[in-house]
From TrEMBL:
<comment type="function">
    <text>Catalyzes the conversion of GTP to 2,5-diamino-6-ribosylamino-4(3H)-pyrimidinone 5'-phosphate (DARP), formate and pyrophosphate.</text>
</comment>
<dbReference type="GO" id="GO:0009231">
    <property type="term" value="P:riboflavin biosynthetic process"/>
</dbReference>
<feature type="binding site">
    <location>
        <begin position="261"/>
        <end position="263"/>
    </location>
    <ligand>
        <name>GTP</name>
    </ligand>
</feature>
<protein>
    <recommendedName>
        <fullName>GTP cyclohydrolase-2</fullName>
        <ecNumber>3.5.4.25</ecNumber>
    </recommendedName>
</protein>
<feature type="binding site">
    <location>
        <begin position="218"/>
        <end position="222"/>
    </location>
    <ligand>
        <name>GTP</name>
    </ligand>
</feature>
<comment type="similarity">
    <text>Belongs to the GTP cyclohydrolase II family.</text>
</comment>
<keyword id="KW-0378">Hydrolase</keyword>
<keyword id="KW-0479">Metal-binding</keyword>
<keyword id="KW-0686">Riboflavin biosynthesis</keyword>
<dbReference type="GO" id="GO:0008270">
    <property type="term" value="F:zinc ion binding"/>
</dbReference>
<feature type="active site" description="Nucleophile">
    <location>
        <position position="297"/>
    </location>
</feature>
<dbReference type="InterPro" id="IPR036144">
    <property type="entry name" value="RibA-like_sf"/>
</dbReference>
<keyword id="KW-0862">Zinc</keyword>
<feature type="active site" description="Proton acceptor">
    <location>
        <position position="295"/>
    </location>
</feature>
<feature type="domain" description="GTP cyclohydrolase II">
    <location>
        <begin position="175"/>
        <end position="339"/>
    </location>
</feature>
<dbReference type="InterPro" id="IPR000926">
    <property type="entry name" value="RibA"/>
</dbReference>
<dbReference type="GO" id="GO:0005829">
    <property type="term" value="C:cytosol"/>
</dbReference>
Length: 363
């Protein structure tokens, strides 16, 4: 018998640790390191990290490095040396673009070259999946297993972790129940829980759609500001309600409510992006300055849910060609694209235009 957690469980634990500012031990073929998310690092812990190594670095994505004009030697990321006198405020300024314009970073940022960046890449992937800023302080340590045990820290083995990071975890249906809603009394809500401890996703089934025909379907990404608060900055709320209304009117449909807030960067980071938008950057530029790609969502999980419900063909309510391509790639036929154009306001006109110009959304 072994009660030891498996790699999925350890990754879930590592995400929780990073969110709390607890260091995680990373164990690779070329050495071991300690990683702490820049966003949750404290001055005290920074002192502890400095005591462990003379050469701490902050790993950032190439996107963030570009904004900071730091040289990138590792393709998708940079390992920026933390200078001797640098304090927590310096680290925060590297990680967070909030003050980029007010207080630009001084002096050249020195990128570390040579050696392996594999553990740094793993650390960034972990902070992204923890919905934190993708910036991590990494210090080398001599040995992983004993260090982790001595300090009660989570240890992640690089080789075991990597296959899980790019892959979506299996989703299991937890429960479903009848849910009459304004759009249709014949609603039924299904709850799905991923095996890796990440966010749950939902599906609302309207009526009893015929599984042998293309179903009217919508893949909706969570938008707390638009869906719940009625934000005028995007079109999510009106799109959600228009999709449900159309399903209600036709008597059948399936709406997936995917908890991929802020195109997969999480609500806190989306609000950071909004703050940058107030400084004049558009929705795509703001994501890049924060260190993210334009869109960090994985729509394949939508296909998984549809397949699990017995659907193989959809009439997809969307203006986003990437959703259509991803559906087709994962074996769900898109028999028809049903445009969904509602909710344009004076506030979101520029946002919608940027999506059309830079993200390929159909007008
Ligand atoms: N990062 C970021 N996310 C945003 C922003 N505005 C809206 N979102 C998120 O974007 C997602 C909605 O995606 P959209 O790009 O509007 O639309 P779509 O789902 O790709 O395509 P459609 O099917 O045509 O609606 C939701 O998760 C929102 O929270 C923003 O300025 N920055
Ligand atoms: Zn929105």
């Amino acid at each position: 018998m072994s009660l030891l957690p498996d790699i999925n469980e350890l990754l879930a634990r590592a995400r929780a640790d990073l969110r709390m500012g607890v260091p995680v031990v990373l164990d690779g073929e070329d050495g071991a390191a300690l990683a702490v998310a820049a966003e949750t690092l404290t001055a005290e812990r920074l002192g502890d990290l400095r005591a462990l190594s003379e050469h701490p670095v902050i790993a950032i994505t190439a996107r963030r490095a570009e904004t900071l004009k730091a040289r990138v030697y590792d393709g998708d990321l940079a390992r920026v040396e933390i200078p001797k006198g640098a304090d927590l405020a310096w680290i925060r300024a590297v990680a967070d673009p909030a003050d980029d314009l007010n207080a630009p970073m001084k002096g050249p940022l020195n990128g570390q070259r040579g050696g392996s960046a594999a553990l740094h890449r793993l650390a960034i992937a972990l902070t992204k999946s923890a919905r934190l800023l993708p910036a991590v302080v990494v210090v080398p340590i001599a040995e992983a297993t004993r260090f982790a045990a001595e300090h009660g820290l989570t240890r992640i083995n690089h080789q075991l972790a990597v296959p899980h990071l790019g892959e979506r975890s299996p989703l299991n249906e937890v429960v479903h129940a009848r849910l009459p809603i304004a759009a249709s009394e014949a609603g039924r809500l299904h709850i799905y829980r991923p095996e890796d401890g990440a966010e749950e996703h939902y599906a609302i089934e309207i009526g009893r759609p015929d599984r042998s025909k293309p179903v009217l379907a919508r893949l909706h990404s969570a938008c707390f500001t638009g869906d719940v608060m009625g934000s005028l900055k995007c079109d999510c709320g009106p799109q959600l309600h228009a999709a449900l209304a159309q399903m209600g009117a036709e008597g059948a449909g399936i709406l997936l409510y995917l908890n991929q807030e802020g195109r997969g960067i999480g609500l806190a980071n989306k609000m950071r992006a909004y703050s940058l938008q107030d400084q004049g950057f558009d929705t795509v530029e703001a994501n890049h300055r924060l260190g993210f790609e334009d869109d960090e969502r994985d729509f394949r999980l939508g296909a998984d849910i549809l397949r699990g419900l017995g659907f193989s063909s959809v009439r997809l309510l969307t203006n986003n060609p990437k959703k259509i391509a991803m559906m087709e790639k994962t074996g769900i036929t898109v028999a028809e694209r049903v445009p969904l154009k509602v909710g344009e306001t004076a506030y979101n006109r520029a946002y919608l235009a940027t999506k059309a110009a830079k993200s390929g959304h159909l007008l």
